[in-house]
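Protocol step 4 of 5: obtain the predicted structure for the target chain.
Materials: sequence only (see below). No template structures provided, no constraints applied. The aim of this step is simply to have a reference model before the mutagenesis design in step 5. Sequence pasted as it appears in the construct record:
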Amino acid sequence: MRAVITGGTGGIGFAIASHFGKAGYQVVLADLNETLLQQKTAELSQQGITADYCLLDVTDQQAIENCASRFPADILVNNAGIQHVARLEDFPPEKWALLLNVMLTGPAMLTRAMLPHMRSNNFGRIINIGSIHAVIASPFKSAYVAAKHGLLGFSKVVALENADKNLTINTICPAYVKTPLVEQQIAAQAKEHNLTEQQVIEQIMLAPMPQKAFIDVSEIATMATFLCQDAARHMTAQTLILDGGWTAR
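Step 4 output (C-alpha cells):
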C-alpha cells in the first residue's frame, strides 16, 4: 500500500513518512527541493523502508496530475505548509494567495487527482495536517488561519461525497510543533511583538496551553498511522486536536 506525503522532507512530513515506512507501507515523499528529496529518500531506504519521491509544487495543477498519475495513492497526507506573519493591512496580496493555494487549494486539487484510484479500489485514507489554528485564531496570521479553517470544511464535504466507499478523510490539528516552520514563526512574532524569542515561546505560543509543551512530531505520525487502520474505518470528517488542553478553556 502506497502513502504519498506532501511536504515530505520537513519535520512533520518526514516523521510521518518514517512512521508509515516502519509500519510496512511504501512511502513517497512529495516536495519542492529535488536534492533534499533525494537525501531524505536515501535516509528512508537506509532504514530498510521502501521509498521514492515526487518533485511536486502543490500550486501547480499539471504537477499535481503528474504526481497522481505516477504515484496513485492509497493514503494521501496533505502536509505541505508555509506561514507569513503580518497585520492584514500589511499582508502582501500575493502572499495571501500563496498561503491559500498551498494549504487549501493544493490539498483539494491533489485529493481530487487521487480520488479515482481510491474509489476504484474501494479504499482510501486522506489525512490533512491542520493546526490548532483550524479551530482558534491568533493575530497576524489571517491567511494561515483562513486556510486551516477552510481545510476542515473541505474535509467534511469530501467525507460526505465518498461515504459510499471505504474512504475516510480526517484532519489532525496540533498546537505548536517545534519544526523549522515554527522556529521562523518565533522569530517573526518576536519582531512583531517586540519581544525576545524566549518571551514569544513562554508568553504567546505556550501560554494558552495548560501542559506547556510543544507537540512532538512522533505524536502526529502515530495518529496518522492509526487513522489508516481498520479500527478507524468509521472515523471520517473528524478534527483530531492535539493541543495540551488549549481549547478546553
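Step 4 remarks: The longest strand covers residues 167-174. Helices lie at 11-22, 34-46, 61-70, 93-120, 142-161, 180-193, 197-205, 217-226.
Proceed to step 5.
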